[in-house]
Amino acid sequence: MSPIAEKGTMPNHTLSTDALPTDTAPTHTAPTHTVIDPAILYFGTPVVLLSTIDEQGTTNTAPMSSVFWLGQTALLGMGGRSVTAQNLLRTGECVINLPASHQVDAVDRMALTTGRFPVPADKAAVGYRHEADKIGSAELHSRPGDTVRALRIDECPVNLEARIVSSRVLQKDHPGDGDTFVFEARVTRVHVHESIRLRGTKNRIDPDLWRPLIMNFQRFYGLGEELRPSRLSQVDEEWYR
What we know:
Radius of gyration: 28 Å
Order of helices and strands: EEEEEHEHEHEHEEEEEE
Structural class: mainly beta
Number of helices: 4
Strand order of the largest sheet: 3-2-6-11-12-5-4
Distance between the termini: 74 Å
């Protein structure tokens, strides 16, 4: 069509049907969800080696990953029949030792061990064995805490001494289940390897240098690289005190 219409005629404004959108609604294809009933809900938490004091006054150390932190308090979850739970209820103290991802072999050497003797039948049936010196069996070394009697593990980059300020029994999933406890552990002292401290600061951890060991559905994982800066990181850590 000529850009200028001839005299006495109207321009032809007919549009090609090829230029018309066939569907203006936005498209969205979402993955589908399936209802499942998993026996465990371990979607990924740090592994800790929890040191407590037994009835003989010696340290019992157990690997666990039902743990997270709110402020200066750690929340610990475990079965009530375990030696660790009984020690916490009796003494009210512990050391939360955090291994790095490269120490996975030492941590796994503690797996399927118990301080209880004889080994309870249900644990023996799945391969647990008695081990009085779990730290030594994992080829690790230790020293007493400053504010608690339980041992700190030298090789773990983070040692958190703590005292139990509260404990309670969780509501049972099934009537026949044994008790499961949640403990609130107030951190009384923090020890870290100099290798993970943020350069130029006194009290901060460098997240690029601290590589925790993660338990994800009974399997060990480490962290990858930082994905992107978080807007939350713009808030100074001291604001949380």
